[in-house]
Design goal:
It is a single chain. Helices cover 46% and strands 16% of the residues. The protein is α/β, with parallel strands linked by helices. The strands form 2 sheets. It has a 6-stranded mixed β-sheet, sandwiched between helices. Helix 7 packs across helix 14 and helix 11 crosses helix 12. It is globular.
Length: 348
């Protein structure tokens, strides 16, 4: 019996990998499995739990940062617009202030946090004015790392990391200022920077195009990394889409929270004595391109690059520092070693 069984086994033909793949592709062979239902499961879970998105706005006073954020999300989300008895004043130093909102659209909840940087670029001497911003971003990475390495960590770690930094360039029409170069060169290594030309309606179309070309040349000359970075394109499709976006960076934008009647339709726009500048009209400005990038097409990619690239770089560096100092990877030790940075973050 044993010999006959062995002979029978030997006579069984081997099945190649290619034939197995053909069987798995042939849904009619076994019938419908339902693998595609995982997309519905992911959508249901995302709608139930919601997600976080943290945007930092940086630029000198008077460039319309708050107005643009309100226009982007069609709500009063900026610190300036939702603070009672708000007084516009020039700060002697950079003070980072954040405001959070829960926005819901078609059942999808998003916790939106806008981090403002009043005082940036407003002084005669702006030396090292980017330091508090850099510290704030790193403190958020440190907080996430401590939660991640905690023994009794939370099932879902609160994400306060900055996913995107919108940097406002004044519409001078000339070139990047030293403060612009230094800020983007330093911060481009730790956060996704999206530069925009603020109040673009103060420039003619020709001036706008010429200004953009000069900025692009400066970005390339100073080796400044802005989002979307070429090295993170995952495939040809991503590259084609991102190349179109890179051609338009920095986006020339106009923000407003006022509606006007144009041909019987309500539109967001700024009324001037020459006519109405329609914010969402691509012939007037590139606000819609910025909105699509930040919200409609690249929001998840911004979060993925923050987690997989910027946070991962910080995480590796911090763990190597702890290891080099002869400290074990105990979460308690990590908390103690990061206390100085926490103090810096609280001071900011």
């Amino acid at each position: 019996m044993e010999e006959s069984e062995v002979e029978k086994i030997d006579e069984i033909p081997c099945t190649s990998n290619s034939s197995l793949e053909d069987h798995t592709r042939d849904h009619g062979f076994f019938g419908y499995v339902g693998i595609e239902a995982v997309l519905d499961q992911m959508r249901h879970k995302a709608m139930k739990t919601g997600f976080e998105f943290n945007v930092m706005v940086v630029g000198q006073s008077g460039l319309g940062k708050s107005t643009l954020m309100n226009t982007l999300f069609k709500s009063k989300v900026s610190r300036k617009s939702c603070t009672p008895d708000y007084e516009e004043k020039i700060h002697k130093t950079v003070h980072l202030q954040s405001v959070s909102h829960v926005i819901e659209e078609k059942g999808v909840k998003m916790k939106l946090t806008i981090i403002d940087t009043p005082g940036f670029g407003d002084q005669i001497n702006n030396e090292n004015c980017w330091d508090p911003i850099e510290k704030y971003i790193n403190v958020q990475y440190e907080e996430y790392l401590k939660e991640e390495l905690s023994i009794n960590r939370k099932r879902r770690i609160p994400d306060t990391r900055v996913h995107c930094c919108v940097y406002f360039l004044p519409p001078s029409g000339h070139w990047l200022r030293p403060i612009d170069v230094e800020f983007m060169k330093r911060l481009g290594k730790i956060v996704n920077i999206v530069p925009v030309i603020a109040k673009a309606d103060t420039l003619t179309i020709e001036e706008r195009l010429e200004f953009r070309d000069r900025i692009k040349r400066d970005l390339e000359a100073y080796e400044i990394s802005v989002y979307p970075q070429k090295e993170y394109d995952q495939d040809v499709e991503d590259q084609i889409l991102n190349d179109k976006i890179r051609e338009k960076i920095p986006f020339a934008v106009v923000g407003t929270d006022k509606e006007h009647q144009v041909n019987g339709n309500k539109i967001l726009g700024r009324k001037t004595k020459w006519g109405i500048i329609e914010v969402e009209n691509v012939a007037h400005c590139e606000f819609s391109d910025l909105r699509d990038l930040l919200i409609r097409s690249h929001l998840q990619d911004l979060k993925d690059i923050t987690h997989n690239i910027h946070y991962e770089t910080y995480r590796v560096r911090r763990l190597n520092e702890i290891k080099m100092n002869g400290i074990g990877l105990s979460p308690l030790m990590l908390v103690n070693s990061g206390s100085e940075k926490d103090d810096a973050g609280n001071h900011v």
